[in-house]
Amino acid sequence: MTGLAAPWWQGGALRVGASGMHIGGVAIADLAALHGTPLYVYDRARMVGQIEALREALGTVGRPARIYYAIKANRCPAVVQCMRTHGGVGVDACSPREVALALSHGFAPEEISVTASVLPDRDLRTFAAQGVHLNLDSADVVRRYAAIAPKGTAIGLRIDPETRLGYGDATKLNYGGGKLGLAPEDVVAVAQLARDLGLRVDTLHLHLGWGIQRRDAPAVRTAFLRMRELAIAVGDIGVVNVGGGLGGQLRPEDDPLPPADWAAALRDTLGDLDVTLACEPGTLLVAHAGLLVVQVTSTFEKKSQRWAGVDAGLGIHVYAAHYGAPLSVLEVARPTAPPTHAWNLAGHINEAADVLGRGVGLGDLQLGDLLALYPAGAYGSSMASDHCLRGLFTEVLV
Ligand SMILES: Cc1ncc(COP(=O)(O)O)c(C=O)c1O
Known about the structure:
By secondary structure, this protein is α/β, with parallel strands linked by helices. It is built from eleven helices and 19 strands.
């Protein structure tokens, strides 16, 4: 049973007040009464605070730095607008429509960095017309882009991190050794191919994984060192982009790598190269700024297990079903009350996998009770589907 005795989630965006949980200083019950459920709520101050903290950490590296917000994490218009107006960051996009969305929010093409895989020619033509910088990851796509883009177009090369780290060891959670990125031993030859075909290779790119933990620090340093070696071997590299991957806690035992430690690894491995350092945070900036409020709509017992059914499911929040990643389930009215029962939390989709939590320690749940699923600011609404036509939800920024 997951106890709530030590509410590790308190602080940051979430507080407990007289009327239960608050996010960004606003009572969640009031938001639910106003907007209904299921309801995604995001705290603007937390997002801006995260950007500032990341900037501060990057400031210790001693190199010019750029932050590109990974828009795939959350493309709610109010969130993107917050990044634009309060964050002053660029955008990491992975599809022509993500680029179009960023452009529609006022980001200039040069503020957008595209890192995408398995790109058809039609995407490459659209990117060329949009005037954005691409990080590419195979000889095949380099050849096809060289035939489309004007001579002298700058590109980056994405490198396979060949490591497994972060929130878990499941294939879905890992980025090394799969379809993404060039094998490190192929990078110099592909860079030469690009140059022979009239492209300019100005960037090396790496995305390590999801939810990098403190225990991963040695692997992170090794990967950054390899970027250093490759930057020297390829030559004329102006930007080393180290992607996203910094996260927060999904459960009490998580111990995420602090941005300051990550920045120290950057300083020690890449700090003396004459390059700009870039990164693409998604989770770090928005995950813990958001939660999903749902309502208990049924309760039942089966083989002495308690089940609570709620008015949302895997269609609008895929963490548990798709990633097997745990979520904290908090009672909005009594988030710090000691748990009295273990509950399984059933989503309302007709799929056996649609279980949002198992054995969660909560109180004596009643119909109409509000629950908050946390964190839910990243890869929640942005991955939502309308499966079973159950995909409706509202999003608000406080
Ligand atoms: C290339 C790339 N950059 C950045 C990100 C953002 O990662 P995170 O949310 O872990 O910061 C991702 C996530 O999939 C990615 O694939």
